[in-house]
Structures are given as C-alpha cells and as structure tokens.
Amino acid sequence: MRLDPRQHDRGSFCCGVEVLDTYLRQQAGQHQREGIATTHVLVDDITPGSILGYVSLAAAQLHLQDLQPPDRKRLPAYPIPATRVGRLAVSSQHRGQGYGRLLLGHAVNSGLSLREKLGVRVLVVDAKDERAAMFYKAFGFQPTTATALTLYLPLGNG
C-alpha cells in the first residue's frame, strides 16, 4: 500500500542504513506529495501502522546503449521508458523473512501495470553496493553497459 504519513509510523523504522531510514522519515512523504516518487510500504497485519519494509518508485529512462545488446532489438534509438526502484529497505528486525522479495515483486507488478497504461519497458535500480546488486541479479536484473551497479529488468518483449 502507498505510504500514508498520518497512518504509518516512519519514526520507528530502522533498516540499519541511515540514508534509507532518513529517506523514509524525512523525504518520502514530500516526494510523494510533489509527484517525484511514490513510496509503498509493507505493514504488519496486527499493527498496521508498523512498517516492515518499503520501496520507492519513480519514472525514469535508460539510454538504448545502456541495455545489453539482445535487449536492444526492435527498440527505437531514443531513451527507453523505465520505472526506477529508488530505494528498497526492510526493517532490521524483519530481515530474512522474504519481505525484500515481496517488495521487489510489488515493484515489478507496478512496472507491468504501468506498461499497460503508459508504456514502460524496464525496471531499473542503482544498487548501493555489490551485495545489493547480487540481490537484484538473483531476480534476473542485468547490469547496464554504463555501470555494473545500475541494473535493469526487462518487462516483456512486446
């Protein structure tokens, strides 16, 4: 569900990465209001204000030459529409329970839904480090030609 700053307790969320905690606490609501990004939260059924994890999504684009050669086929020579996973974090106390996978699945489903309504070809993420990149690669993300930590997942072939 989308973040509702009046309902969801952002202050007690802690994933152990200060920049991700700070984003949720201080910027996510503002970015959502201003149309920069949306933040989607996974909450506890028993205490629905408690955030287990979150993912932020935004519009993006990739240059055609950043895609791997097989993914460039039949695409125009201008930037490719994308959905960006801006941030993905799971609460430190809830790691290892598959919540990161659920949040990523939500991001993929959101991208696929946008593909039907607007036109989105890939889901793109800038992994913060090699460990995060390995998480995304396990779900089929591929490195761009520009940098190994910028990864993308094709959302269908046409």
Description of the molecule:
By secondary structure, the chain is an alpha+beta fold. It has a domain at 52-154: Aminopeptidase (3-Layer(aba) Sandwich), CATH 3.40.630. Helices cover 27% and strands 26% of the residues. It contains 3 helices and 6 strands. It has helices at residues 18-33, 99-117, 130-137; strands at 38-43, 51-62, 80-90, 122-126, 142-143, 150-154. It has a 6-stranded mixed beta sheet with strand order 1-2-3-4-6-5, sandwiched between helices. The longest helix is centred in the C-terminal third of the chain and has 19 residues, at 99-117. The two termini are 28 Å apart. 31% of the residues are buried.
Q: Could you say which overall geometry the principal axes of the C-alpha atoms support?
A: globular
- Give the SSE order as H and E letters: HEEEHEHEE
In CATH, what is the class of the domain at 52-154?
A: Alpha Beta
Per CATH, the superfamily of the domain at 52-154 is Gcn5-related N-acetyltransferase (GNAT)
Task: Find the count of extended strands (DSSP E, 2+ residues).
Answer: 6
Helix fraction, binned, reads 25-40%
| Rg measurement, Å | 16 Å
Strand content: 25-35%
Distance between the termini: 28 Å
Largest sheet: 6 strands, mixed
Average pLDDT rating = 95
How many helices in DSSP terms? 3
Q: Please state how the strands of the largest beta sheet are arranged side by side.
A: 1-2-3-4-6-5
Which segments are poorly predicted (pLDDT under 50) over 5 or more consecutive residues? Answer: none
CATH architecture of the domain at 52-154: 3-Layer(aba) Sandwich
